[in-house]
Amino acid sequence: MPELLDAGPSRRGWHRLQTVLQCPRKYAIYTRDKAQPRPTTAPALIKGTLLHIGLAHRYALIQDPDADVYEPLKAVEGMAAKQPNPEVWAEHVPLVQETLLQYDVRWGHEQWEVKAVERELVAHIEDKERGEVYLYTQRADLVVLNPLTGLWYIVDHKTSVRPPSSSAKAYSLSGQFRGYNMFGRGLLGFKNFGGVVLNMLQWPGAKKPAEFARLELSPAPFADKTFQQTIIHAERTIRDLTKLYTDTDALAWPGVHHEHACWTRYGPCKHHKTCEWGPDQ
């Protein structure tokens, strides 16, 4: 039976650190809820997950046409079927499959040499002041070599309801992408690593096809220089607060009470009412 690839999060990635930096209470709730996961129902998350699994299988078969993995469209169906609420996920399968077909039309003649698909990258970040070493990981969607330049790139797939070109700037200081830079330069060296490519798409609508763009991140040398210290700061925050609140509820962790954390561009934080009224909300 063909294999369904793992396109999920890495073991100790940026998301958990980003969350504690955004709001310690949100991190504590996130950690608590991970122990009892609930079925995913958010359309944006479902569609993004299905697209990632389809692209992972597309590039795995480009890398090795004989690989014992699902064809991309079948992989999307397989991923939806394995969920605890498959009927909810199935609603989004046709749109994702149509988007993958349009992706093939747009990028069917790309010249990238595929070197790795869904590869977990691993680093050990040393905190000399505390005498600790922190495991830090990221799962690269795609690693490619451009045969024209001889440079390697880490490619990250991103979806958006907005035109691709208008979304790229939001990622220039993202820890996820600064982390990719750290890994790329550390593993490949400055001379061989070309950078991070945002492989962006806007979902198709009723009267228009999907839009695609491949964009390189703007340079952020100071952010790259200080990124490991950001990792250390976040890990220290987790350890220090865990010691203070070990035997208490997640809601005892401090909240940030900041309008840009409690209310995002997508609407309120999902814990907004709880922080307003308490645990019974």
Estimate the mean pLDDT confidence. Answer: 93
Q: Which stretches of 5+ consecutive residues score pLDDT under 50?
A: none
Q: Estimate the helix proportion, in percent.
A: 40-55%
The helix count comes to 10
Q: Outline, from the CA principal axes?
A: globular
| Class derived from helix and strand content | alpha+beta
**N to C succession of SSEs:** HHHHHHEEEHEEHHEEH
Number of strands: 7
End-to-end C-alpha gap: 46 Å
Instruction: Describe the sheet with the most strands.
Output: 5 strands, mixed
Radius of gyration: 20 Å
Q: What is the strand arrangement across the widest sheet? A: 1-2-3-4-5
* Residues in β-strands, percent: 15-25%
Brief description of this entry?
With 281 residues, the chain is an alpha+beta fold.
Walk me through the structure:
- The protein is of the alpha+beta class and 281 residues long.
- It has ten helices and seven strands.
- It has helices at residues 14-22, 24-34, 43-63, 72-81, 86-90, 93-107, 175-188, 221-244, 259-262, 272-277; strands at 113-127, 132-146, 151-160, 193-202, 211-216, 263-264, 267-268.
- The strands form two sheets. Strands 1-2-3-4-5 form a five-stranded mixed beta sheet.
- A hairpin with a 4-residue loop joins strand 2 and strand 3 (151-160).
- Helix 1 packs across helix 8.
- The longest helix is centred in the C-terminal third of the chain and has 24 residues, at 221-244.
